[in-house]
Amino acid sequence: MLMAHPAVLEELLRRYEELRTQHGEGGEGVARRLDDVSYTLCVSTGTRDIAAALVAAREQVRRSAPRRDDVVSA
Question: pLDDT of 38-54, one tens digit each?
């Protein structure tokens, strides 16, 4: 399975969270964008629902982050 780049997943997660906070007050436009980003997260993570997509995306981003012991101090 192809995997989305962690930077792409980070951006999708950021947009999802932003749209979720605006969802109740933003009308149809916000709802449509939230549906779009939810769908994209599902496709990008190979999942079928947004809850699983969020878990998978966050895990992929977490795994791609440099660990403290990987960082070399100068």
Answer: 999 999 999 999 999 99
Q: Would you call 26 helix, strand, or coil by DSSP?
A: coil
How many helices (H) and strands (E) are present in the chain, helices listed first? 3, 0
Burial class (CB in 10 A: 0-12, 13-18, 19+), 47: middle
The residue type at 61: V
Is residue 26 pLDDT above 80, yes or no?
A: no
Determine if the pTM surpasses 0.85. no
- 60 touches 6 (CB < 8 A): yes
Rg for the chain (alpha carbons), in Å?
15
